[in-house]
């Protein structure tokens, strides 16, 4: 009785949409307070998911959504990395 595997869903912190985990980018605040992109979605720490869309990334930067959800200061370079990640599809 082999059934289909369920696709895990996560909520984008900007759009509040539930989307498949693979369509989102995970950003993590480590226990040491460092904020970084987690392409594997396996690093420990407080995570927040954001849609892999340039418009959503820019909106997150404008509204400071990631900083609020991660309860940490998000460096400007992280948003540049997110946009680069979006354009290339990987780090």
From TrEMBL:
- What Pfam family is a match for this entry? YlxR
Q: Which InterPro entries match?
A: YlxR, YlxR-like_sf, YlxR_dom
Q: Which Gene3D superfamilies match?
A: YlxR-like
Which positions fall inside the YlxR domain? Answer: 10-82
NCBIfam families membership: RNA_bind_RnpM (NF047356)
* UniProt cross-references to PANTHER family, sorted A to Z: BLL0784 PROTEIN, YLXR DOMAIN-CONTAINING PROTEIN
How is this protein named in the record?
A: YlxR domain-containing protein
Question: What is the scientific name of the source organism?
Answer: Salipaludibacillus aurantiacus
